[in-house]
Structures are given as C-alpha cells and as structure tokens.
Amino acid sequence: MTMHTLADLSRVHREQRGAQLALKYINDGRTWTYLQLDDEANRVANTLAAAGVGAGDRIAFLDKNTPEYFIYLFGGAKVNAVSVAVNWRLAPAEMEYILNHSEARILLIGEEFLDALGQMDLTAISTIVVIGDPGENDYPTFDQWIAGAPATDYQVPVAPEDTCYQLYTSGTTGLPKGVELTHANFLHCLRHSLKAINMGERSVNLVCMPLFHISGSGWGITGLYNGCSSMLLRDVDLPLILQTIATERVTHSIFVPAVLQFLMTVPGIENMDFSSLESITYGASPITEAVLMDAMQTFGCNFCQAYGLTETTGAVTVLETEDHQPGGPRGHLLRSCGRPIENHSLKVVDQQTGEALVDGSVGEIWVRGPQVMKGYWRNEKATLESTTAEGWFKTGDAGYFEDGYLYIHDRVKDMIISGGENIYPAEIENVLMQHPDITDAAVIGVPSERWGETVKAIVTRVGEGESGELVSEQAIIEHCRKNLAGYKCPTSVDWMAEIPRNPSGKILKVELRKPYWEGRKRQVS
Question: For the range 241-249, what are the long-range contacts, defined as Cβ-Cβ under 8 Å and sequence gap of 24 or more?
C-alpha cells in the first residue's frame, strides 16, 4: 500500500508494523503502537464526520506538544479536513484572530489555555474539546469526545492536491497569514527533503520543538512517516531532552540553534551518554560557527542543516553531513545552508527586475518546486504578491550562490529571528503607536549572544507624558507585554528625535541597524 496523503500514514503502518511502538509521551509515559494510533485516529474521524465536519473544514489545535495532536491530525486527514495548529505563545487577541480567520469549526485545547480562551470572542467554533481537566466548563475531554465512536477506518476521497494543513505566519502588514499546505507538499517533503538523515523503522526520533512550527510538526510527521518510534516532549525542557536521548536511546532529533546553544550549558552534559545519536538536524534560524562546532564535538554524531520556510513545507536546501568539516579546505561551507533538494529550483534574483544574478551576487532567494504552498488562505492579494506566474515563490530572504551552495546574507523583509521565532516589526510598531506618549516608532533586530537577535524599539516621544515626565523604557516594554506575546516584546528601547524615512515614508531600517551590526559580515546573527 502506497501513501498518497497524510490519511494513509497511520493506515499503512498499521498494516506493516501495527505492534511496533509509534509514539511515547515522555512527560507522562503514555504509549501508542501504530495499530493504536490508527484506531484512535479512526475514532476522531468518525466523531468529526458525525459532527458534520468534512472536506475543507478547518479544525484547530491549541496546546503545547501532546500525543493527541497527531491523533487529531490523522483523524482530520481521514475526513479531508484541514488542521490549524495555533501558536500557544501568542496573546489571546492574536489567537482569537487566527481562530476566527481560519473559520475553524472544532477547537482541541489544552487545559492550560482555558483562561486565554475565556478572553476570546470566537465566531466560527461550534465545539470545544479539552485535553486534561475542563474545570467548571461544560466541555468534553478528548477521551469523552471520541468515546463510543467506532474504530473502523473512515474513508472518503482525498486528493494529493487538497489542503491538509494550515499554519499561520505573520506578514509585514502585521496580520498573520494562513499558509495552505497540501498532502502533496507534505509527501514530497517526507520522501525527499531529508533523505540525508537516513531515518528508518529502527530509528528513535526525538520531537521537542513546538508543533505549531513546521520544524516541530513536520519533524514529528517525518518520524511517523518513516515508521520509527518517536519520543514526544511537551516543551523544550533542556535537562529532560538530554536525559531522554540517553535513556530512550534516541538516534535522531532536530533543534533550532538557540536550543543547541542552551543545551551546551546544561551542567554535567560532558558526562552524559549520547552514543545512540546518529544525526542531528538544525535550522529555522542562523547558527554561529562556535555553537555548531561545540555541538558537533559534544554530541559526536552527524549533523545536517536545513533551510526552508513554512511556505515551502520546510527544507528546500540541505547542508549534508559530508559538508560539515570545520577547519579543513571545505570549512567555509559551515556558513552555507547547503544545496537545493531534489525536484526544486532555487535562484537569486534582482528584487526589482526579477533577473537571475551570477554567483556571489546578493539578491532575493526564489524557490520553485512541489513543496511550495498552495497559497495564503483567504488572501489572494498576498498570494499573488509572493508568487510569480511561473510558480516561483519569493522567500523575502537575501543570499547568494557559490559553487552550487546557498549562503544567507540578509533578509529582504524586515523579519527578526530570535531564538528560532519569526518576529515581524510592523506588528510591534502597531502596538507601540497605540501608546499616547509615542509619536513615532521603528523596530529592528539587534545582535544577541543568547538569542541570535533580539528586538529593539526606536521611539520618538511626546515632549511630556501624562505623568508629566517622558515615558520610560520600562513603561514601553510593559505596554507591549500587555498586547503581544512575550517573545515579540522589545528587550531595549532607544530614543530618536526623528526616525529616518525615504520620500515615500518607508522607515530606513538598513540605516537604523548599521550602528548595532557594525563590524559584522552579515546583518543576521
């Protein structure tokens, strides 16, 4: 039996390796075989169908990493529904926007986020299901919701070109955009993009990155696609990550560079047993050579770097193990993000003309291939702006090619990457401008040894605030914390009498960044 959609994944492995361990939740010890995983996915599918959920309907998930996520995902795929994983780090108002914009009908939510739910006005959700204790709320638990539903396989026509997944990524306008990914997008990624890591049915896969990220959910699905046993952690718990690698004999994992850096600081790491590790994949943000070399020495396994975006269903270039040779004649490749994956074309173009540039010339990176998204949900304008008639997706990243390897140089867009999180300045600037004592504001990323980059606000203040004094740095940061997720908030504020703009009114952020990045070769950390 061949896999054509995500709905086939649990079906195929049920038949081929039903008794094998599919998933273990390290935080409470619960386990699922592939047969049990498919049984529960079938119960979810039958429960959704009984509620009238069908092709193209959105079903949302809001919690930290839990096994129910994968059961819900595969069950939803069997009725041809579309899963929407919501970033639990967002402020309630931001979550509300995504849930309403996606038009999700069902919300599966963790008990930890019921307080946030109480602050939302949801317009499309008809059913709320709780993972854990609903408290005083009259919501069913996940187990209650699927209790009594048959475990028979629910089969409806599902086309590879149908949307199966919708992840939200903020845009330069500050409003999140729903990236529509298809079964075909995912199946190509699963079959081709990370072949270099050599994952198979005997592998043990560690899943600890957030499932609302393509690097988290995509990695979790990669392990299950390959028929291996996956160890799921609720959160990025540094000591537990290291302990799990040793006790569960983990062979494969993925980390963002900030997590790799923090793992190196865990006391006693030098005495831990990592002999089972075969491959670590890293990506989602730039990595310093020092952190990479330290990690390579500490873990003593193969390393692969992956570059991609949500809109490309993850990796579209890979820096393979043989390219990780620090100190040798190929040592410069550690600054690269690798070569294009199978069936994909990448080019670096002049942003104004769209003409391809020669090796060594910096321009915008464009991607074309079977992993490029279907489009942005309910946002035709943004879809048309980001793609060409020939199928090229404009990444917004700037870089250059050299001998077939891609190097990231800068970002065309103003996005900040802090600890692997994508942060969009326009969203923060909108909040800053709501403060009565601020007349103008710009947000940029500045270097951070800990996070790669961190958020800095540059503000023009009203002569005197309501208190009779100039508004303080702390007051501005607190204002942001009331309206934004913590990781988006400025960590520092500078003052400027007049923020520089071009004749059309666009803030000259390149000029604003220069003093903070002086002496560095790249404008990303």
Answer: 241/206, 241/208, 242/266, 242/269, 242/272, 244/26, 244/206, 245/206, 245/272, 245/274, 245/276, 245/277, 246/272, 246/273, 246/274, 246/276, 248/24, 248/26, 248/204, 248/206, 249/204, 249/276
